[in-house]
Amino acid sequence: MKKVNISIICCFLILFVSAQNENICLSGNCVNGTGELKYASGEVYSGNFKNSKPNGEGILKESHVDSIILLPNSMESKKATTSTIQKGSWKNGELNGEGYMLMKSQKFIERKEALPDSSNGLKYVWNIYSVENYVEINGHFSNGIVEGYAVTESYTTKQDDPKSKVGNRKYEGNFKNSDRNGKGKLYKWINGSYQLTNEGEFLNGKFIKPLK
């Protein structure tokens, strides 16, 4: 009897692991049509399909935990996450044509702050703030890679204001293999607006020659 029970348990475990490793069609037609598919990796795609792959207009969303951070002063643990959104025109499971990508990563900061207490004195506490780093890409993609003309913007939020943008950088120009290559313009956010800092030739992400 024990051998039978062990066999049943093993079968259930195999079925459970198999289910965890399979893609799941949440709604619609995920083969040839319009639907929503959840991949075994956790990504979710909503849009058009052809031969079980994203094909046509659609959006792909992904979010995962990068690390679990133990903050030294508060002794509190936080999950640092990275999330990505890709939307636009798809072909054979990859962005092809005009598309948009947004990548967001988190970090946490502790700050010691003074608060009034009941004895009209001050007490000190450690407050925790989430800071997000963003990269946005609008432009042309080829097989999931930024290729051709695109506009990218990167920025960080302030500790006290999740809707704020600081350290803004923007690039307008040509890309090859998802890196700045060819003619382009680089901007920096100064006093409330973007100011041009470099214009000319870029190679593998680096500015090499100004525009004549």
List the helices and strands and how they pair.
Layout: H1 2-20, E1 24-28, E2 33-38, E3 44-50, E4 53-70, E5 77-91, E6 94-116, E7 122-142, E8 145-156, E9 166-176, E10 179-190, E11 193-203, E12 206-210
Antiparallel strand pairs: 1-2, 2-3, 3-4, 4-5, 5-6, 6-7, 7-8, 8-9, 9-10, 10-11, 11-12
The end-to-end span amounts to 85 Å
Strand order of the largest sheet: 1-2-3-4-5-6-7-8-9-10-11-12
Number of distinct beta strands: 12
Q: What count of domains describes the coordinates?
A: 1
Largest sheet: 12 strands, antiparallel
Question: What is the approximate shape?
Answer: flat
Structure description:
This protein is mainly beta. A twelve-stranded antiparallel β-sheet has the order 1-2-3-4-5-6-7-8-9-10-11-12, with no helix packed on it. Mean pLDDT is 86; it is low at 6-19. The protein has one helix and twelve strands; from the N terminus they run αββββββββββββ. β4 and β5 (77-91) form a beta hairpin.
Task: Summarize this entry quickly.
The protein is mostly beta strands and 212 residues long. It is built from one helix and twelve strands.
Features:
212 residues, twelve-stranded antiparallel beta sheet, 1 helix
